[in-house]
Amino acid sequence: MAKFNLKINGKIHRVDVDPSTPMLWVLRDHLDLQGTKYGCGMALCGACTVHLNGTAMRSCVLPVSAAENQEITTIEGLSPNGDHPVQQAWLEHDVAQCGYCQSGQIMSAVSLLKNNPNPSDEDIEAFMSGNICRCGTYSRIKAAIKTAAKQ
Amino acid sequence: MKNTYSRRSFIKVSAISGGGMMLGFNWFVKAKPAEILSKGNDIPPEWVEMNGYIKITGDNVIKIMAPNPEFGQNVKTSLPMIVAEELDADWKSVVVEQASYDTSLFVRQMAGGSQSVRTTWKPLRTAGASARQMLREAAAQVWNVPVEEVTTKTGVLYHEKSGKSAKYGELASKAAAIPIPKDVQLKGVKEFKIVRHSQKNVDGLNIVTGKPLFGLDYRKEGMLIAMIQHPPAFGLKLKSYDAKEALGMPGIKDVFTIKLFEEGEEMAAFDTRTFNDAVVVLGKTTWEVMNARKKLKIEWEPASETKETVVAWGQKRENVIPAGLESTESHYSKMQEMAQKPAKQLRKDGDPEAAFQNAARIIERTYTAPFLAHNTMEPMNCFAHVTDTEALLVAPLQAPEFAEKTLAKRLGLPVEKIDIQMTRMGGGFGRRAYGHYLVEAALISRKAKVPVKLIYTREDDMTYGIYRPTYTVTYRAALDANKNLIGFHVKGGGIPEHAVHANRFPAGAIDNYLAEGWEIPSNITIGAFRAPRSNFIAGAEQSFLDELAEAMGKDPIEFRLELLKRAKENPVGANNDYDADRYAGVLNLVKEKSGWGSPEKRDLHRGVAAYFCHNSYAAHVIDMKMQDGQPVVQNVYSAMDCGIVVNPDAASNMVEGAVIDGIGNALYGVLTLKDGVPEQSNFNTYRIIRHHEIPKHIEVHFVENDIDPTGLGEPPFPPVFGALANALYRATGKRYYRQPFSKELSETQGG
Ligand code: FES
Ligand code: FES
Questions:
Q1: What are the Cα distances from residue B213, in Å, to B186, B395, B441?
Q2: What does the mean pLDDT of chain A come to?
Q3: Domain contains B531
Q4: Residues B548 and B404 in one domain
Q5: B582 and B454: one domain?
Q6: What is the Cα–Cα distance from B144 to B722, expressed in whole angstroms?
Q7: Residue range A125-138, pLDDT digits in tens
Q8: So what's the ipTM on this one?
Q9: Cα gap B663→B240, rounded to integer Å
Q10: Which pLDDT value is given to residue B108?
Q11: What is the pLDDT of residue B79?
Q12: Global pTM?
């Protein structure tokens, strides 16, 4: 066990956990931030995507020890009321089916648009291919990203 | 609190504290379907499956309970829309809440079989219309005017002559005291203002802001995390274990075993006994439990042949589960062997033997498909808090009614003491109809005497079984010298079930027809998977019909339409369970929308398929082109007939998803076994379709009619496999008989 100072969604949290604990479980089990989802635990599905210093990162393989003193943003910290342009685009296209993968999809999309404000179809497909949606909402995700890019 | 309660009628009204009205439409409280039906005459049988309720507060908030569990099929939005329509409510002022499982209030609280909208359509409309009628009568009394003169518009009552008006909320308490109307007038479908108009997902904002909606998100003070270690192979069972090291790991509270069923215990329809004994690790946090579980030293031993008694739908069945470690390779050779043997006859019309004897040409093709894992994005999980006197379970599950009785039996508690709450599900696809994870969580909580959260890792989930079965089918067609189709033979088999629907198309369209089936028992457990059986047989049948049309020199759509015409005008046999007109309707629609046969589409390779299942009709045209030896799906045109479309945009979303799911499973979906061990356990080895692999363009069209709505979650899925196989044939010049097609494709394309 060790103590870590974590900066999550602009707030400092202290946790006392094993240094190997993935951020995913720190968020979910220790900080009760349930928006970040578990899907595979092996960086294969993207459900657990958060931002580490603004860049999309799979929190299931990010040990808490590597996250100390870095800026972490989760879906809960993206905007106060769901008014981030990407969230709004998601609502406009009514993207979700079961919705389970969507926090991760949104976090990836925000990261994509930050570095590439006007992505082509190919850019979107390449960047988003790490995020699985078992319900098959991919076409709407792509459309929503394009809408958000126009904002 | 004041209750007016009518036994003969069906609606319970109560004034809620603070003014307002609560209208529960608990038809036939506590009555069993059989008793209701025997009372006879004036009670429509569909009301038996009734449930849900409306609440209106004094300040005009209308709350509509969503009775059925949501796994992405949109029922949490679409069912309340139906109530709101007849209530003539302002959809913007409606809030929707997920009802918990309650047999005293609701009856068919499940997701499965694409039945949610179909079975609740009339009851939900009646409930909305009854409440509206009572509000009108309350207004008539207060304003002292004839009730016929009271009208409504989006949540407001009006009396035009006197200029009086009132919001529903203002008169709700008063309305609650009005006797329940015997007959209510339902709206004409042309008057719909909410239904048939796209409404956004009521949980949209909660989803995009990451609210804790799912089973895995549920937490309670003092709760411990539990994980189960099941045997690494089907056909093995627990022999002994040493938990010393695991127990010494940080955060670990206990290690023990549970037994899902006692020896000889009768099982119910959706009970499964994949692994009866399991080792449980209980600890403070998920990561600690995951790590400690790795330290368990477990010895497994071969399980012997077991007998299961299953009592399902009033029938008792003995299942013999064979011993042994099974492999995919031996499965396929066993299936080949069985396919040569005589099988059970499922349907016979005319004289198929003679037709085949007299044939100028016989075409015979065999199709196979592997086990598939559901791989819901959210793995199985369940919260349980069981004490000596009661049990609370909170879980993502499709069918609490299946789990409830088993829980009561295993826990020795009356069903009234078992509270099952349904969370939003991170996908279902049939997997969550099997409530073994509730039983497991409950047994763990009872033993540990604490609230627990049972979590399956992805690996636990994927290697647990309850797979889509492995199937095969052989089709034979007899053609005469003029290339007329004179005989048709379908013989299907599988592990452990076949997929033949003997009375579906093309049965009814061919004079000499034979359907047969055979099965091979297995210790690999199987379960319903999005459109059970249809999800295989549709692809095989539609590929075969495509090949047949080619051999007969006919256009694939025209050939199907000819068969349907025959089935309509002069059907063979009496038990054809499809409507030939509606079937032809989706084919004609997809033909039109895809521009079938138009020259400008010539650079694309097109495949078509259609199917009927779960009361709805679906047809797809898939356009493909080859790029660097890989198929790229360019366009998909889908035509659906599911009657009235309650929420059009959400319905399109569902069809788009089914198309993508179908393409993904047809190309990549496969779960194989070696000596009982599943060879895929996470998404590195189990391939799921991803962003860059989906069609560039999907267009969904619905046949417009005023027929009562039928399901949509499953019907569009099965024919995708056939349309894809047929497009692949045109693109590569080769027919595809074995799923997943990507494997055959890489063999043909040289890697
Ligand atoms: S849970 Fe982290 S990528 Fe799947
Ligand atoms: S919406 Fe269900 S997994 Fe993406």
A1: 34, 11, 19
A2: 97
A3: yes
A4: no
A5: no
A6: 64
A7: 999 999 999 999 99
A8: 0.98
A9: 44
A10: 59
A11: 87
A12: 0.93
Q: How confident is the model at residue B312, as a pLDDT?
A: 83
Rounded to the nearest 10 degrees, what angle do helices A121-128 and A138-150 cross at?
120
Q: What share of chain B is helix, strand, coil (3-state, %, to 5)?
A: 30, 25, 40
How many residues comprise chain B? 751
Q: Is the CB of B716 under 6 A from ligand 2?
A: no
- Which residue among B462, B486, B512 closes a domain? B462
**∠ CA A74-A128-B398, rounded to 5°:** 70
Q: How far apart are CA B660 and CA A101, in angstroms?
A: 16
B144 contacts: CB under 8 Å, gap ≥ 6: none
Cα B15 to Cα A36: distance, rounded to the nearest angstrom: 41
Contact A18 B288 (CB under 8 A): yes
So what's the pLDDT on residue A64?
98
**B726 contacts B546 by C-beta, under 8 angstroms:** yes
Question: According to DSSP H, which parts of A32-137 are helical?
Answer: 64-67, 85-92, 102-115, 121-128
Q: Is B69 on the interface with A (CB under 8 A)?
A: no
Residue from B725, B733, B745, B739 nearest B670 by CA = B739
Question: Can you list the residues of chain B whose pLDDT is less than 70?
Answer: 1-53, 102-115, 600-602, 748-751
Q: Chain B: nearest CA to A112, how far in angstroms?
A: 14
Q: Which amino acid is at B456?
A: Y
Ligand 2 centroid to residue B428 C-alpha, Å? 10
**For residue range B7-36, what is the model confidence (pLDDT) as tens digits?**
223 344 444 444 455 554 433 222 222 222
Q: Which ligand is nearest to the CA of A96?
A: 2
Residues B284 and B408 in one domain: yes
CA–CA gap between residue B465 and residue A133 (Å, rounded): 21
Q: Are residues B38 and B125 in the same domain?
A: yes
**Which one of B201, B234, B262 terminates a domain?**
B201
Domain boundaries, chain A: 2-78, 85-150
The CATH code of the domain at A85-150 is 1.10.150.120
Q: How far apart are CA B464 and CA B475, in angstroms?
A: 33
| A45-98 confidence digits (pLDDT tens) | 999 999 999 999 999 999 999 999 899 999 999 998 999 999 999 999 999 999
B550, burial (CB in 10 Å: exposed 0-12, middle 13-18, buried 19+): middle
pLDDT of residue B3: 28
Pairing relationship of beta strands B252-259 and B277-283 according to DSSP bridges: antiparallel
Looking at the complex, report in whole angstroms how far the Cα of residue A147 sits from the nearest Cα belonging to chain B: 16
Same domain, B107 and B171: yes
Q: What pLDDT was estimated at residue B112?
A: 64
Question: Was domain A2-78 assigned CATH 3.10.20.30?
Answer: yes
| Cβ A133 under 6 angstroms from ligand 2 | yes
Cα separation, B160 vs B205, whole angstroms: 39
Q: Which residues contact B574 (CB under 8 A, 6 or more apart)?
A: none
Q: Which CATH number characterizes residue B181's domain?
A: 3.30.365.10
Same structural domain for residues B453 and B507?
no
Q: Give the model's pLDDT for residue B8.
A: 29
